[in-house]
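Sharing in case it's useful to others searching the archive later.

Someone asked me privately for the predicted structure of Small ribosomal subunit protein uS17, so I'm posting the question and my answer publicly. Question first, with the sequence:
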Amino acid sequence: MPKRVLTGLIVSDKGDKTVVVNVERKVKHPLYGKIIRRSKKYHAHDEANEFKAGETVRIEETAPISKLKTWKVVDRVNTHATPERVDVDA
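And my answer, the predicted C-alpha cells:
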C-alpha cells in the first residue's frame, strides 16, 4: 500500500526535530453544497531542524516515531518561484 503524501504549511517549529504542519482540504457541505475549508494539524519529523515556520512542505506517512509523530517531512514546496526573465528585442 502506498504511503500518503500531504502538503501543508508549517505553523510551529519549536519542538526538537519536530514541526507542526497545518493541512487544509476543501469539502462540499452535505446539505447546503457550499465548499468549506477543513484543516488538521500533523506533527512531522524533521531530522536536521532545517524547516522553519511559514514554509510550505510535503509530509509522508511513516511508522510511528513517537506518541504524536507518524509523519516525516519529505521536502519543501517552492511556492514563491519567480518566472524566468525574458528579454524582448524591440
